[in-house]
Amino acid sequence: MLIGNFKETYADDEALFRTPASRAGLAVLLAAALVFPFVASDYLLYLADLVGIFAIAALGLNILTGYTGQISLGHAAFVGVGAYATAIAATRLGLPFWLSVPAGGLVACLAGAVVGLPSLRIKGLYLAIATLAAQVIFEWVFTNWTGVTGGIRGLNVEPAGLFGFAFDSDRRVYFLVFGLLALLAYGAANLFRTRVGRAFIAVRDRDISAELMGIDLFRTKIMAFMISSFYAGIAGGLWVYFARVVTPESFPLSLSIQFLAMIIVGGLGTIKGTLFGAVFVTLVPEGLRAVTQAATRLSPDAMSWLAPMKEIVFGAMIVGFLVFEPHGLAEIWSRVRRFFWLWPFPK
Amino acid sequence: MEGGTEPAPAPGAGDVILSIERLSLAFGGVQALAGVDLTVRRGSIAAIIGPNGAGKTSLLNCIAGFYRPQHGRIVFEGRDVTRVPAARRPALGLARTFQNIALFEGMTVLDNIKLGAHAHLETGVFGALAYGAGARAEEEALRDEVEREIIDFLEIEHLRNRSVGSLSYGLQKRVELARALAMRPRLLLLDEPIAGMNEEETEDMARFILDIQEERGVTVVLIEHDMGVVMDLCDRVTVLSFGERIADGTPAEVQADPDVVTAYLGTARVG
Fold first, then answer.
1. Among A10, A188, A269, beta carbon nearest to B147
2. Residue B4, pLDDT above cutoff 50
3. Which domains occur in chain A, in start order?
4. B90 vs A213: CB contact, 8 Å cut-off?
5. What does the DSSP 8-state code read for residue A6?
6. Fewer beta carbons under 10 A from the terminal one: N or C of chain B?
7. B206 touches chain A (CB under 8 A)
8. Which chain B residues are within 8 Å of A206, Cβ to Cβ?
9. B3 confidence band (pLDDT: 50, 70, 90)
């Protein structure tokens, strides 16, 4: 049983991982993440890369929606902007990936600043509609600005390379994706240890009193949009080197909704929850698909009614989270942790 | 303040810190403030009282920059701040609390208080993402300041990691005062700091307000309905009624003013 968590300096108390147990947990997690690509199958690595890329994008959306309270239905479009910018930088300008991916992030960041402009005047559902418009407009541009985006056929990109080492398989891309995910998650967590992140939360909770505390609302909201779409843009850039082709249908509205589902299921306004949510929303449909395939082997005509079941079960799980655990997986995690701290005493 | 054991008065004590001249504010046809004058001396505690709807909170909102008056001037420390945007005023040394508690409910007590210091901190977005030496030093200095100067002073050590939504009304008011102190004010505006509190909470709050004035030399302007507290705490009282100033003076003078009695109780009609 953990009696207390005592600190001798304020610096210790301000650390991200405050207990020896949480630091040990982090070390184990990092070790597991390093071993994983050498033992996992190709299929699992493919899924892991997908989870990592989505997690980076979802971190961005959680900064904007979960922490700053600005709802966005256009997050997939920013991932798309980043992906196209990266692909164009790589193919037309011949930039290496360590320049083209940040370039994708920056272009998405600028697009985010523009889309964020109406947020000073409109909130809530109205802002959701404004960002939905952005989603539709960007999708249209991806399809129809053929000279730049390659239209429906899209753009093909060579694998990322570093000093002659080509990131040409899911196993190799894994290191790229999870290296950046670790870096960006660390950055996001840092953000909320300082005045910048506190201002975001203040704007979400009570914008008028935030302003009277000296927070410039417009600047803060635009900043949240820019950081959020920068994360989306980086995810888009990684998508390019993961899929090696960019096509317009990769960034539909349904993906934007999926990002929202990740942060709601994981926990709005938590970094840990974002990661849980990205894993859950990406892997659960895959798991359900595996179950339906197994069932089909037993009875061939099961497919016809099990396939729609998959969607229904997934939808029901999300509704279940909204009703029974509105604080998401992150809250479940802390409850489990509290249980073990207090063990063997109940409650 | 004249006793030998008292701390030395703040530099410039006694001069005018806030001067409001002919301030008028209207919402459509409703005249909230009609040519109000107010002078507050540095290091004093001033009260604004008046019946409901007299314009007390409107006046405070003008000083804090939340409302833009149509006419008149607000001069703070010799500088005309009438047109300074609300978000820039905390950096000048102005802080306020709200009548209806306006804390950030998704944050802990500690983060709420830290947020008060926002205008005095400098970390930019890149510094924040990297949490480099600059950001780290700033956060550690802030934590130290908040712990020593505010949490310890207001006796809320046991609350620092609680979320503000879980606190009682009286404690939320105290956390709001803590957040206002983190704004490092020279002029503190308190909108009904003790409304709705029980006796013990009221005494605590009155003691904190006196300590803030006496030990830190912060000038306080407060709105309050509890006349006992106003009379005990304040050096000067200004009475508003229907947007106009009807009396101004020491608590004793104001209490004796026939216009004030009329405004509060109505006029006795004979016949």
1. A10
2. no
3. 36-342 (1.10.3470)
4. yes
5. -
6. C
7. no
8. 102-105
9. very low
Examine the fold and report which residue of B150, B179, B208 is the final residue of a domain before the chain moves on. B179
Domains held by chain B: number = 2
Structural domain boundaries, residue B170: 107-179
B253 touches B260 (CB < 8 A)? no
Asked whether the predicted pLDDT for residue A40 surpasses 60, the reply is: yes
Q: What is the ipTM of this complex?
A: 0.84
Residue B101 lies inside a defined structural domain of this protein: no
| Distance from the A203 Cα atom to the nearest Cα atom in chain B, whole angstroms | 9
Q: What is the pLDDT of residues A89-113, one digit of tens each?
A: 999 998 999 999 999 999 999 999 9
Q: Quote the CA–CA distance of A109 and A71 in Å, as a whole number.
A: 17
Q: Using CA coordinates, name the residue in chain A closest to B144.
A: A10
Element (H, E) at B241: strand B236-241
- Does residue B267 form part of some domain? yes
**Where do the H-state alpha helices sit in B65-198?**
109-116, 125-130, 133-145, 169-182
User: In what helix (H) or strand (E) does residue B239 lie, and over which residues does it extend?
Assistant: strand B236-241
N-to-C CA span, chain B: 51
Q: Which of A23-27, A168-172, A180-184, B90-94 has the highest mean pLDDT?
A: A180-184
Query: Are B11 and B77 in a shared domain?
Result: yes
Phi then psi dihedrals of residue A339, to 5 deg: -60, -45
C-alpha A219, offset from chain centre: 23
Contact flag A211-B87 (C-beta cutoff 8 Å): yes
**What's the CA gap between B47 and B248, in Å, rounded?**
10
CATH for B24? 3.40.50.300
Q: What is the pLDDT of residues A263-288, one digit of tens each?
A: 999 999 999 999 999 999 999 888 88
**What per-residue string of b and e applies to B142-166 under the rule 16 or more CB within 10 Å gives b?**
bbebbbeebbebbebeebbeebbee
B18 contacts B75 by C-beta, under 8 angstroms: yes
What residues form DSSP beta bridges with A115? Answer: none
Q: B175 vs chain A: nearest CA distance in angstroms?
A: 14
Write the burial class of residue A191 (CB in 10 Å: 0-12 exposed, 13-18 middle, 19+ buried): buried
* Domain boundary pick from B119, B151, B179: B179
> Is A268 in CB contact (< 8 Å) with chain B?
no
Q: Indicate yes or no: CB of B104 within 8 angstroms of CB of A209.
A: yes
> Does residue B2 sit in the same domain as residue B83?
yes
Task: Provide the strand spans (E) within chain A.
Answer: 155-156, 160-162, 165-167, 245-246
Q: In whole angstroms, give the CA distance from residue B164 to residue B171.
A: 9
Nearest to B118 among A191, A213, A223 (CB): A213
User: Which of A13, A187, A195 has its CB closest to that of B118?
Assistant: A195
